[in-house]
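Inputs:
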Amino acid sequence: MDRCPLCFGTFQKPKLLPCLDTMCFTRLDEYVLKHARASGTFPCPVWGLELPVPDGGVSKFDDNQHIKVEQTLERALAAPGGHVPCETRMRERPFGVLLKKLLLYIFIYL
Ligand SMILES: [Zn+2]
Ligand SMILES: [Zn+2]
């Protein structure tokens, strides 16, 4: 998995910037406090692209849901005794159950 460009660790509350870089919320918050310009922008810590500071601050940037899901999945798989996420369990269920689910989806969405 990718590492955070600000702390070089795994992401904590990953925030997705408009330039598509991702970094930890707290690190980004500190960074923006230090580097925000009077004009209301700050340079992206990765490539230096000028980005607007959102109204309400860094917390208003989108969460990187993709990384969050990945982390949740990794934690689940790494847990002792292995909690297997429901989606994985689904694959192990008898084919008939999946078929019923599929037919239900078709019924609902078509
Ligand atoms: Zn970080
Ligand atoms: Zn960037």
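The mean pLDDT is 85. Flag for discussion at group meeting.
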